[in-house]
Specification:
A seven-stranded parallel beta sheet has the order 11-12-10-13-14-9-15, sandwiched between helices. Helices cover about 30% and strands about 25% of the residues. A hairpin with a 7-residue loop joins β19 and β20. With about 750 residues, the chain is an alpha/beta fold. α6 packs across α7 and α16 packs antiparallel against α17. It has 19 helices and 31 strands. The structure holds adenosine-5'-diphosphate and zinc ion.
Length: about 750
């Protein structure tokens, strides 16, 4: 480490540092003893009245500022390896393409623990705790009421306990017991399994796909389209195996890691003796830093992570896989609004390694890229296990079979049949809470959030169905109020829940099937850490007959005893103003349908709809993604929507709606002068036009040519920075998903 006490002179080197500020510029500092090898290192520098951590971008012979006015860096971290040059280049690309300050991009790439200097030293490696003889003796004498101590003692009595298995309270106890000599510490070979699973023999389709992929070690983007359960993951694992053989690292990106623990286990078991690290925002700071550094040092063989892992430093990178590539979770929705899938493809090209994008329902952007030859399409059309056929999808016409409490007669009968046979059912409804709104039966008044442009959602709180307590909640700003006794508009007392949410469907099913064991899985019940895994366990061990859940149940789980999926409320998406709502609905339906009939029992899917002839539903019935994509792309082309045009959204928000509008009008006027070939629409309210009393408006800019749009931005962005914007927040969203 260098220190600030080193005197500076006329020959003291000057470094350029990128800092996490909204200003898109770099900062010069005097850095005694610095040289080219410091590029990519972290530096602690004075900035205003603070000291902040930045990344060294390079050395400069002269600063634009007079030497006397330059400040001196406080410290350069030479213990951590510097960010490698390719990662710096990737950051520069992302900063340029997504129009985000480089310093902010670099800060986002670093794990939170490395955004500060100092902090606790690195773990020397994973350790396990073992009871000493003294400890065994003492624990036996603990009083009965010391339940936490006794519980931990019992766990230790059955063998060494890894540090990762401890919660905060356990850690406190462990510290205490180490001091008392009840425990010792021993290094643990990180849970790298020594033996693993044998791969299954390949299906004919898998052989064909692999024949195409194999031998490709340089850059190429492959779109692997395969129905759920067709063995896509098996393809990834085979390619990962090839790369590990060659001494390379593999990067696997998934939409949400905590929802797919099975994948982590499956990879770990397949590659015994290899180091697999997870990288996602749910990790504790220390663990995330460790995982990141393990990747950076080239010690991780496989990095499995969420979108942020696309920026993981990987010196031996050999393959990138993006699983469920269509999932909107790959798009970051705040700060730098990047698409991890698109960055992955860029990175594959940069590092000259293959990229595999896998999905049962590819994003229409990816599908078109495949059709135009930019991506190479490979397909798996059958389920891998011979016994597991695709489920039968039936549309239930809710105009003739009128739902009662959300449930059609057909669905009730189908559930009853499963109960009789001892099989499981899933009722899927993508709305949590009791009912989407509370409605006054006298005047039709519904209850808006006073701070947002959204209705308050009725939620039931504990108390059981006999004595339920209700709340009205805003899903956008968190407002929570008790439902009023009387309608504030007409004074009427007949206030009724309108529509269905997961809680109400659960209640209706409980009334219909009093003997059945029900389990609701939505964001409210799965919020607690570990709750989701526990629920999955309950389903797997058949402690549940009927599941009620939102899309979080739909993601990548194997429920072998599940033979029925009922879908409620899907029509909602058909009338959405969002042009991507149909695409999302199709993907969701295919995914949730894929949950049924995975094992020996054939599955059945019932979709309740008032539009059974809608082509989207017809395509779901036929399991026909290509057919759906053809029709959807035709519509997109006709309406001049992506992927036929490239879009950028200028988003602005503030308390004063007129000021926000004024800013966007000025932005538009300036933009129109720059390039008449780029289309700029009128400023409009965002889909959620008011959140927590802040008004959100947006300006859509589009062009058929992506490079042209980018060169327009080159000139427009500096202009935007000059516009008066007091009291406003604004930002650009390149390739926005929610327009
Ligand atoms: P996907 O990723 O397309 O959903 P998976 O790779 O998870 O498909 O495969 C679905 C199921 O089929 C898994 O249980 C997997 O173990 C099994 N499977 C995959 N390939 C084969 C194969 N060639 N032979 C037998 N079973 C297979
Ligand atoms: Zn609100």
């Amino acid at each position: 480490m260098t220190s600030s006490t080193t005197p500076t002179s006329a020959s003291t080197p000057i470094i350029q540092v990128a800092l996490d500020t909204p200003l898109d510029r770099v900062f010069d500092y005097l850095a005694p003893g610095a040289d080219d090898s410091d590029v990519g290192r972290r530096a602690l520098v004075p900035f205003g009245h603070q000291k902040v951590v930045g990344v060294v971008l390079g050395m400069v012979a002269h600063s634009e500022l007079p030497r006397e006015s330059l400040k001196t860096v406080q410290e350069v971290d030479r213990e951590t390896p510097p960010l490698p040059a390719d990662l710096m280049e990737l950051a520069r690309f992302a900063a340029g393409y997504y129009r985000h300050p480089l310093g902010a991009v670099l800060a986002a790439i670093l794990p939170p623990a490395l955004r500060r200097m100092g902090g606790p030293g690195r773990d020397t490696g994973p350790v396990a705790y073992v009871l000493t003889a003294l400890g065994q003796d003492q624990l036996g004498q603990l009083p009965r009421r010391a339940t936490a101590q006794r519980a931990l003692g019992d766990r230790l009595a059955s063998g060494p306990l890894a540090r990762q298995e401890l919660d905060t309270r356990d850690k406190g106890l462990v510290r205490d017991w180490l001091k008392k000599g009840w425990l010792t510490q021993q290094p643990m070979e990180d849970g790298i399994p020594k033996s693993g699973d044998e791969p299954p023999g390949l299906t004919q389709e898998q052989v064909t796909v692999l024949a195409e992929l194999e031998g490709c070690v340089g850059f190429g983007t492959w779109l692997l389209h395969g129905v759920t359960g067709s063995g896509k993951t098996e393809i990834y694992l085979r390619r990962v195996a090839d790369m590990l053989e060659m001494g390379r690292q593999a990067l696997i990106l998934v939409p949400e890691i905590h929802l797919t623990p099975q994948l982590t286990e499956r990879i770990a078991r397949r590659f015994p003796g290899r180091r697999l690290v997870g990288l996602h925002s749910g990790l504790a700071e220390g663990a995330r830093r460790e995982a990141w550094l393990t990747a950076l040092e080239g010690r991780a063989d496989i990095v499995l992570g969420t979108r942020l892992a696309v920026f993981a430093p990987m010196p031996r990178l050999g393959l990138i896989v993006v699983d469920e590539e269509h999932d909107p979770a790959f798009k970051q929705m705040e700060g730098m609004r990047y698409s991890a899938r698109d960055v992955a493809v860029w990175r594959g090209k940069q590092r000259n390694v293959p990229v595999i994008l896998g999905s049962a329902t590819p994003a229409l952007e990816s599908w078109r890229n495949a059709q135009e030859g930019r991506y190479r399409l490979v397909s798996l059309t059958h389920r891998a296990r011979e016994s597991a056929a695709l489920p039968t999808v039936r549309l239930v016409d809710s105009r003739t079979d009128r739902p009662r409490q959300g449930l059609t007669q057909a669905l009730v009968q189908a559930v009853a049949l499963r109960l009789e046979r001892g099989e499981q059912s899933l009722v899927f409804i993508n709305r949590r809470g009791y009912a989407p709104t509370l409605l006054c039966n006298g005047c039709g008044h519904v209850f808006p959030c006073p701070r947002c442009s959204a209705h308050l959602v009725l939620h039931r709180r504990g108390g059981g169905p006999q004595a339920p307590g209700y709340r009205l909640l805003c899903h956008h700003c968190g407002l929570s109020v008790p439902p009023p006794e009387a309608c504030p508009s007409c004074g009427g007392l007949d206030l009724r829940p309108a529509g269905q949410g997961t809680q109400r469907v659960e209640e209706a099913l409980a009334a219909q099937f009093p003997q059945a064991r029900l389990l609701r899985i939505d964001r409210d019940t799965a919020a607690r850490k570990g709750a989701f895994a526990a629920m999955r366990e309950q389903v797997a061990t058949r402690e549940v007959d009927i599941l009620v859940g939102t899309q979080i149940v739909a993601k990548g789980h194997d429920f072998p005893h599940l033979t029925l999926v009922g879908i409620i409320g899907a029509d909602q998406a058909l009338v959405s103003p969002d042009f991507r709502a149909g695409e999302r609905l199709f993907a969701q339906l295919m995914q949730v349908a894929g949950r049924s009939g995975r094992a020996e029992h054939p599955g059945e899917v019932l979709i309740q709809t008032a539009y059974p002839r809608h082509p989207l539903y017809q395509a779901v019935v036929a399991h026909d993604y290509p057919g759906y994509a053809r029709q959807a792309l035709r519509e997109r082309r006709g309406a001049d929507f992506p992927p036929y045009v490239s879009q950028v959204l200028l988003r602005a928000e503030g308390r004063d709606e007129q000021a926000v509008l004024g800013f966007l009008m000025a932005a538009r006027e300036q933009g129109e002068a720059l390039d008449p070939g780029v289309r700029i629409f009128d400023p409009v309210p965002a889909l959620m036009s008011r959140v927590a009393n802040s008004h959100r408006l947006q300006l859509l800019v589009q062009s058929r040519s992506r490079p042209r749009l980018q060169s327009f931005l080159d000139r427009w962005v500096p202009v935007l920075g000059e516009l008066p914007s007091r009291g406003l927040r604004w930002g650009l969203d390149v390739d926005p998903l929610d327009v």
